[in-house]
Amino acid sequence: MIGFPLLLVPFAIYNMIAFLIQMDWATKLYRIPLKSGVIWEPTAGDAFIVFSLLMLMFEFIKSMRQGKSLVEHFLSLLLACGAAAEFVMVDPAKIMPGSAATPAGTSVFVVLIAICFVDLFAGFAASLRRARRAVVVDPMPAPHAERAARVEPARVEPMRAEPVRTDPFTRVEPTGAVRTEPAVAPVQKADP
Fold first, then answer.
1. 105-120, pLDDT tens digit by residue?
2. Does residue 145 belong to any structural domain of this protein?
3. What predicted TM-score, i.e. pTM, was given to this entire model?
4. Alpha-carbon torsion 137, 143, 148, 153, what sign?
């Protein structure tokens, strides 16, 4: 199955906003007071970049799970190069005279282009790594050697060394002459 680059979605959304809607990317969406006393005001451009990064994450997950075909690499290349060309050459105000549309030459669009190129190069790197793992080298047989029947070597079972069992109550008699007298004279007590 051939999919399409998921970053095509943020690219299409950006173009719809740039060509159809009169919106500034610096429009503040919220006012969030922080514990430090600073008020953080994320803009529409910040939200768009976060959305684009989420789409990049899903693209990585898709690429790692099923891999990318050559067509998908080509579509990612086409998307990145097309976005870069649009950044350099297109001005919506010239295309739609009398419109106050947002131009394509904004820093939000540059970050989107950078995200597209990160997707492109990460896809190439993942494919090369996958291809490197798949390479199997079989040794070529000698041209004049005949194939002999394959003989399996005999299986030799290792011997288990078991400890020698000795009964602690068994008396072992020495071999040779049997003595009846003790070798040392018994100690006698002296009377006082």
1. 788 889 999 999 999 8
2. no
3. 0.61
4. negative
